[in-house]
Each structure stands twice: as structure tokens, then as C-alpha cells.
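Posting for a labmate who doesn't have an account.
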Amino acid sequence: MKRYSAWNVFRNGLSDQKKWDRVWRDPDPKKSYDVVIIGGGLHGLATAYYLAKNHGIKKVAVLEKGWLGGGNAGRNTTIVRSNYMMPDNRRFYEHSLKLWENLSHDLNFNVMFSQRSHVSLFHSPAARDAAARRYNTMRVMNSDGELWDLNRLKREVPHLNYGPDARFPILGAAVQPRAGTARHDAVAWGYARAADSYGVDILQNCEATGVTRAGNQVVSIETSRGLISTKKLGFAVAGNTSRLWRIAGLGRLPIESHKLQAFVSEPLKPLLDQVLAFGVGGAHFYISQSDKGGMVFGGDIDWYKSYAQRGNLPIVQDVAECAMSILPCLGRVRLLRHWAGIMDMSMDGSPFICKTPLSNLYLNAGWNYGGFKASPASGWFFADLIANDQPDPIIANYDLDRFSRGYNIDERGAGPDPKLHG
């Protein structure tokens, strides 16, 4: 892989940018691999990269039924944060944020990570107290967190609805300054390019259609491009995990697949420097402004289960009302497009990175709303699990057995209902 540098940009400019190497190969499938990862999104690509880089396992294939990053990787609102309180989540997402902070240098590819702060509004004294508890916990565990009073918030984000008749009166905000956004497709391209440089085969348009087992072990994967044998197999397919789980003959999972819609407006002049979020009175909303000027925003999942990657009007109305309640200046802005990703919602709102009933099958799933921000740490720890056949202590409780042990990692305190863990 040719490393990107200012000198290379200048030199290739002299030849009309025609002498760049292909960013990653488009190989034919080999008959066998040491590890096969099903899912060519951010988690699958990150896993392949860290398998090669951290553990020296380079005979790896990533199978993607469509194009690279064409699933949930390209269907999210690109928010990165680690403002979690539960010990398991606190350690995991803080590790992920630290990886984000050096990711462009690590991959030699600009993932456009922008640490612009995550500002979570509160609207009542009780909400302020809950935010103080969460953010003080973060600070005790050596992370960053601030509470902004109303005067500070007005200086930093002046365009909010601070009026006395506001639908949701604002009292202040809990802020994580190191949080921000990244460019989702750039992250996918960066991981793909870096993994390919280690010899990882990225197989696009290669759908897994069957899993061949010999007793308690996976022997091979049937694909649309032929049969592939493997010593170890990892699932990283987000909302389609339940489908693949059944293909492997393993029955049912404690996961529901729901749609999460996202929206982007027409480009605007610079308006919002931060990531802004609030949740009150049944409303749930988050918004930021992209580098192209579009306002990128979203809200709750659709409550019915679905595998469709398209939205519907009730959520459009709900999210538009949330936007208007907090940023009335957006009232005449036109919506450019909207889409939906398939969310694999677990019963306690936290993920699975674990071994499975099959001795050489490993599971990465149940990311709920946290999949994008988790990508680096998810790949890091999933690769470690596959390579060493045992979990790192940080993910020891991200297993399928935690429910039978009565150990829920319930960040929101919503109980065993996946629809409530937004």
C-alpha cells in the first residue's frame, strides 16, 4: 500500500492524478481461510484489520453481500461519543473514543473525525441531577464531562429555542468536549485499505447463503461465489444477525431488528458547531451539521420489527416536530433525503461480543444505537476474541449468557424491552 503524504499528492498532481494505486484489491475467493468475517461494514472491516495488525492473522476474508459499507455503515448519523455510565460500557466506549482520536494516523487515511462536543440538553432539575450523576461518574473514571448552565449554553449554541413559551424549556446541558462526528464512508474506506495492505481479501457481492457444520464446529460457508472453508467464522452483520443465526442452525437470538431512520437537509451556511441531543416527554432527537452544510438528524426507531431499509411518514413527522421544537430556525429548510438502517436491538440495550454454541463461531451483534461510535473498539476486541479464543476483561460481560445470570447492562434503565433503549 502506498502511503498518502503531501509529497504524493503533489507528485500525482503533475500527472493529472492518474498514477494512484488501486485503494484495495478485488480478489477472487480462495478455497480456504484461517478466519472469515461475514459483514463488510465498519465492524467487520475493523475486525479484519486488527486481526492482521495486532495478531498477525492475515489469511482473512471479509464477505459482503453487496458493496463495501453499503449496509448500516452508510446509514447512520456519524456521532462519536463515550458518555456512558455503566462500568462495562464506560470502559468499552472510552477505549473506542481513544482509538478514534488516532484513527486517521493509524490508517493513513483521513476519516474526518471532528471533536466538536456532544451537547445533551436537560429540561428539568431532575434531568440536571441525573446528568450530573452520569458525568461525575465519567470524570471519576478519567474521562471528560462538563455541565453548562443556561448562560454558557446560550453563548455556545445561540440558535436554540430559549423562549419562555418553548415546548421544552431549556435549563442547561451536559457536554462531552471530546465527542464529535466522523465521515462514515471514509472510515469504511480507511479500514478496507489498511486491511487489504496486510493481505486481507475483501469479497464484495459475496453473499453467505449457508453454513456447513461438522458436529459443534463450522467447516465451511456456502456463498454466492462458491464454497469457502474456514478455521474460524465471525458474524458482524448488524440487523441481519438473526437471519444468519438461523442459517447456522442455532435457532433464536435475544435480538429484535428495527428500523432507525436518519435525515439530511439541503446545505446551509455554518449554523451548528456541536452535536446536539435531547430527550424529554417522549421525544428523542439528535442533530449535527455535516462538512457539506447539511443538517444531519434522527430520533427514535420505528417500533415495529422490520428488515426494510426505508422509512415511513410517522417518524418523519415526529423527528421534524422535534427539530422545530428546539431549532425553529429550521422551519423553512428543505429535507434533501432520508433513509433507514436495520438496528439489532438487544434486550438490555448493550451488545454481544462473544463465543457461541459452536466452538469456532464468534458473534458481534446487538449494537442498538451505538454501532458507529463503537466501530474501532468493536473490531479491536472482536479480533482479540477470535485470535485468543477468550474475551478481554472489558468485554467479558458482553456475552449471551448474561441474561441467564441476571446481569443486564442497562444503560438507560428501561428494562428488558429493546424498543426502549434509544
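Reply:
Got it, the C-alpha cells are right above this. The chain is about 30% helix and 25% strand.
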